[in-house]
Amino acid sequence: MDINILFVFDIIGTIAFAISGVIPAIRNRMDLFGILIIASATAVGGGTLRDLLINVPVAWLHNLVYIYVIIGTVIFAIIFRNKLVYISETLSFFDTIGLAAFTLIGIEKALEAGFSPVICIATGTMTACFGGVIRDTLSNKIPVIFREEIYATACIFGGVTYFSLHHFLPQDVVTVLAGLVVFTVRILSIRYKLKLPTVEFKPGI
Amino acid sequence: MDINILFVFDIIGTIAFAISGVIPAIRNRMDLFGILIIASATAVGGGTLRDLLINVPVAWLHNLVYIYVIIGTVIFAIIFRNKLVYISETLSFFDTIGLAAFTLIGIEKALEAGFSPVICIATGTMTACFGGVIRDTLSNKIPVIFREEIYATACIFGGVTYFSLHHFLPQDVVTVLAGLVVFTVRILSIRYKLKLPTVEFKPGI
Amino acid sequence: MDINILFVFDIIGTIAFAISGVIPAIRNRMDLFGILIIASATAVGGGTLRDLLINVPVAWLHNLVYIYVIIGTVIFAIIFRNKLVYISETLSFFDTIGLAAFTLIGIEKALEAGFSPVICIATGTMTACFGGVIRDTLSNKIPVIFREEIYATACIFGGVTYFSLHHFLPQDVVTVLAGLVVFTVRILSIRYKLKLPTVEFKPGI
Fold first, then answer.
1. A130 lies in a domain?
2. pTM for the complete prediction?
3. pLDDT (tens digit, 9 = 90+) per residue, B131-185?
4. Residues of chain B found within 8 Å of residue C52, distances taken between Cβ atoms
5. Domain for residue A204, yes or no?
6. Positive or negative CA dihedral for C65, C67, C70, C76?
7. What span, in angstroms and rounded, lies between the C-alpha atoms of A151 and A129?
8. Does the N terminus or the C terminus of chain A have fewer Cβ atoms within 10 A?
9. Within a domain: residue C143?
């Protein structure tokens, strides 16, 4: 896949993820610094954890565009905060593009670093999901993706698609198809309110 | 010590630690993905933090057996969840084997990387204890080992034993003895309900 | 700047930050191990995160003086805990020296590792502020610096001062001036109860 297209989606994801940090930070009555840190952690936290684990340079330390995009997004999101709440469906659309892009970036970075498919799927999922985990942990909540949403599952489906097709189709096509799988699984799960099952102990335990 | 025996204990510890993640995750009404992540964080979180700090490759990224053991354990633990609660004493026994094994692995990895005894004891304790800290933090609780249990203390005793004997006895014997110290201190503290002291402020402060 | 003077301030900061971990740990009824870990995380957590991100050896693993200073401080702080609460203004003074020292150390370490000014300011701020973030997260609270205090802002002002003067004045003078800016902004914000603004959603959102 043309790296520039993945980069465009990466930036769209960064913006959408940063916004998904700004809104709860405002609700938690954080100040401007708090809002900025929560937005940053949501947007680049997953990729940072990935880069530390696979021992490659942390992306946003070497490419300032992420910091500038996040700062711009935070300013924009604070100014238009009352409007943002009404376009949550649109936001969710961009968020899902980010989910797909982050998953693929995570997979391809780990693959390039020589890791096995299982680890690549794990780092792809981590790239896409752990920003939200860090956001919720810093906001003193149990991470929402551990409880309610088909989010990580979409990434895992995309990852499995990626490595199923990897040897049969050109790289670009595989990337696009895997991204579409992430996108579609997530969108369908929102539309039909699909959730992963939970389990319970017998009453009295 | 024969590395294979330490490896067997390592796997026992991984299983026991993963189970000790599954149970509270179910209680917190997490979905299957949440349960898997909490179990993984409990089992490999301490070792991951250690590897990042001492700057060696993160173990579970390079040896898939940990991921497979955790996935298997999670499936098993979910199926038999109602039974597990009744064998908490047995679980606690395996958990203590894991505590000893993880401590020794943490000590020996840091020693191999050239760190001083004080740091080796710290990384040994971290390997054994910080999975639980991450589990509790992700579950939105103050980590239980900061408050209630002789857990880290057992690791520190084992570490001090290790470096006290290090120059006088063969390596294998030292590893076994240090592991037994961790095990014994922990088991005695459970049996006699020993706790580390807490301190308080004067009333009114 | 003479490295020894920065080192003296570094140790003063380590002591003050460790104390700022001990007090809430006691209030949270943690045991001795919990108090030690919270004190350590507050004192070296920010620097540890910085070193991991910029991929240099983690400072306290290679220089045991930090561990010994923290252990000594914890013992001292526990013994004199009832007195410490009455000298919170003095503590706040030393804490602010630590804030300035940690910011400068963070900036200079990242600069030495070849990072751009924006990243150096970010790592300086992180060095000074993220110990407190980790302390609060492990204590199951929303980090106080995300909500209430001019703390990170002082670091950012200091960092901007540093790079504004960097090409015009001798290195030592720049370091001293930037440190004074951090110190002054923080002290003024305490005296005049300055806070960063927060924003709110319209009622009903």
1. yes
2. 0.94
3. 999 999 999 999 988 987 788 999 999 999 999 999 999 998 999 999 999 999 9
4. 52-53
5. no
6. negative
7. 7
8. C
9. yes
